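Side project, low priority. Logging it here so it doesn't get lost.
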Amino acid sequence: MNTLVALCAIGAEKILGNEIKHLGYKLEGNAPGRVTFYGDDDALYRTNLCLRTSDRVYLQMAKYHAEDFDELFDGVYNVNWQDFYRKDVHVIVDKVRTYKSKLNSEHSIQGMVQKAIYKKLGEKWHITTLPESGQDSDVRVYLDNNEVLILLDLSGLPLHKRGYRTDGGIAPLRETTASAMLQMMMWRRKTPLHDPFCGSGTIAIEAALYAHNIAPGFGRRFALENLSIYNKDRATKIRRAEAELIRTDVETRITGSDIDSAAVERAKLNAEHACVAAGRALQEIGSDARIVRPDFVQADFTELEAPYESGLLLCNPPYGERIGDEEEAEKLYKRMSCLFTNFPDWELGVITSHNKFQDSIGKHASLLKDLKAGNLETKFYMYSDNLGSKSQNNGKRGKFNGHRS
């Protein structure tokens, strides 16, 4: 059994933990921005392929107490690194996080950890200098109250980089954050969903992947594939098993709009890339089924009307780089109050880093959640008290035409 650590946005730990449990793995605990759990060997690949809200998955290599550099070195050296690496590996200690520990020089800790790994590899392989001509392998170190955690990166590029977004536009929303928003709103595939500021289409695309039960990692590779422990045959079987779970028989009403025509075209292209990757996964199991693409149209949000009695509006409205100064942002958010009128029985979820959002839109959220992804601190405002009914409209499939009648 392996101990793994999955990273996520600070504030999304519970959502990620539920995802991990849904995959059948046992939780060990969590800390801000990370969840620790136990999994079999298949979990190393499967979690990277399937987790929607995790930014990275690590394998825990060691956990021990260290108050000086000798103890730090010994703990790292005792790991059987030769079982995980090829002889041309280039090891990078990419990040060090320290908290209330005697060892607190990040640069010195990085150097000592790398020295211990290379010394172990050199002795086991009987070489004095590693060529370092192969793939990079990242190691992360946490020191918390003198407790050392040594983690081996299994993901490579952050998992929010699904592979479908070739152009994100200005300040795009992370795919993992969009997925967390969907789960926090407890969205279900039968519920109509619309993003009135679709940008690169991230929210609608993540909703489509979720609705059709498409694993988000089908369109990319993982750092695990560069390690000696990687089992290609098992990975192929896991991919095929997940492809078998893709739902092509469900009706979805997922749409997006944006006042910028270039953004709409960008969203359409990204959605196509995502659905093509899913299509290739289906082809691996002999299926030629097609995934329905989300609909995107050009429209100002003030011109929209609700095509169904109830649904979910979910969005990341412009702010900062995407809109300019705070005064301009507040004017936009005041105009957004029309969504409560034009979509009277719809839920609304808005993520923004603007602290005066509630004052500007003129209504306080039913639930407010802090989310921090990277260096960006945002708040997720959830409005659900305006819902009249949870019942779904099962009539004709609707589409936003961009104009109110």
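Brief comment: The CA atoms of residues 212 and 247 lie 5 Å apart.
Revisit when time allows.
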